[in-house]
Amino acid sequence: MIVWSGRGFLSLLILFIAIFLFIPILPETYITQSFVIPLYIAAVFSFIFGLKWNKTLRIFIDKETGKEINFKNNHGLFWINMEYWGIIFPLFALVILMQSLDKQGAELYLNIFLILIGIGCLLYFGITLFKIKNSTISNSEFQKTDVAPQLSFVKEEMIINKFNNEDPNQYLPK
């Protein structure tokens, strides 16, 4: 059973599409790489779009009390946010590559090159996440000052008011 929230399923979808594209392209001798390269592709996708989609904050204003209600987006897969899958996927790839280091010739050098790419991805993604999570201005405060969520609230309020004026019994069977 696959559990996701928001657009988190796209991480697995990208992974499976990339695997099914790389298996027929690469020769059978490079079967390990046909799983590692899609893991890296899914990692980059998950990290970039996870950061982008999970940092947005929607602000609604309660009509009765006038207080702001904040809704933060949550896009994740198996209860883990998408940006963290950008670190988990390269870890899986590194485990697969470490198991196939006994190869000889060009495949050994390709594995070493892919290991270096994986370590670079892990370092970059880890440092970036560390900087974002420990920044002096939190993501929610940054998004509160943004005008876009408030504009979307006005549109949603207009839609709600439109439906509040209608008779709800008109949709019932007669």
UniProtKB/TrEMBL annotation:
Keywords: Membrane, Transmembrane, Transmembrane helix. It comes from the Bacteria. The chain crosses the membrane at residues 7-25, 31-51, 77-97, 109-130. The keyword Transmembrane applies. This is SdpI/YhfL protein family protein. It comes from Flavobacterium frigidimaris.
